[in-house]
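pinned: reference chain
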Amino acid sequence: KPSRNRIPGSMDALKITLKDLTLLSRDRRALVILVAMPMVIIAIVGSSTGRLRANREQSRQGLTMEVADFDRTVSSTRLAGFLASYENVVVKKTDIPQEFTEDQVSQLKTDRPNGESDVRLVIEPGFESTMREMSPTDLTSPDKSSREKGMAGIHLALSYNESAADPMMEGLAKMLVKMSLQTAILPIIAEKVPVLRGAANRSKTIPEPWASTTAAQATTTDTGNRVYQFFIPSYTVLFVFFLVNIMGRSFLDERDMGTLRRLRISPISPTSILIGKTLPFMILSLIQTTILMVSGKILFGMSWGPMPWLLLPIMLCTSAAATSLGLMFSTLAKTESQVSSFGNLILLSSAGISGCLVPRAWMPPLSQKISLFTPHAWALDAYSEVLTKDMPRIAVIGQSCGALLIFSALFFVVGRYRFRRDD
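pinned: its structure tokens
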């Protein structure tokens, strides 16, 4: 088989591609699983783990506070009203029965809020009367009394959502309560400090709740849908690289049947053979990615960003990197057990370190740097730029696609070297 008899050309690669596409299309069950499995996992993970991420997104948008007013006085109403007037603070009033018991008050103080509420403020009976009994010095310096006796000393109690514990949020909630308290009790202070009557008169009107303003309505977004902006591209990238195992088994089957040997002794260049063997899986990868993206938009309300056309080069470069990695792995793996063990090891470890399973922003700085040695991380950066930014930066997307093409070229060169060495 002298090298001069080998005829490099695109027609040879095209014939091999068409032949392999025909073989792949016959295994319809595998094709359905290849697309259906990612959709099922995205739906399950998005509806369970996704809720935690949605809560984190919600907390970034603002603070949601429950207010249980057992005092039902002018001062307690003013306190809740001024809390609700702060920007990005949403106050939800807890329904209190007309007749209540001490046990009901204690239960709300003890139980932690859940769901969308970040904080619960319980205004206990006797709040206003306690304020009236305080001296002018204590009234004009609420920090002093609250630090000495705590919130309980002025019949207030704060509890926090256990699923979103955040010391910064807790400190912010306490500060907002103290600031609102100072304004809410101005009429009481003015009765004891006449010089403050003017300020008390100006604060008689409680501002409109921020949640009712036009600005609040404009910033309200569906955090549940935003969750899928992360999960769908992440799991799409994860399952695109699952083609590594499929390609490895395909090469093993053809090696066992003698197909690869017949191709090697034919007048076709190794490059044309490898291109022909890789292209069918790249086409399959693009089909899988397209179906997942379209399904994400239709089923989960995922946005494609302001420039959807930018998804095309990302999909092409990601599929090229995945299939080139599959090619390299196929020329390295020699047995079925090697394909299964080493393939899964490569896939799961690279997915974990790259940010496919958890956002890279949650990782330690060192892990974030290490992740850049995987093509997955560059693909995720590009998808994130298109899907989550109001104005995607072309330079960032170009850099990510360039890195993916470098990975593709590197994997292909190593695969070609191994293929020629086995020749």
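why pinned: Strands lie at 63-69, 89-93, 119-123, 156-160. Residues 62-219 form a domain with the abc type-2 transporter like fold fold (CATH 3.40.1710).
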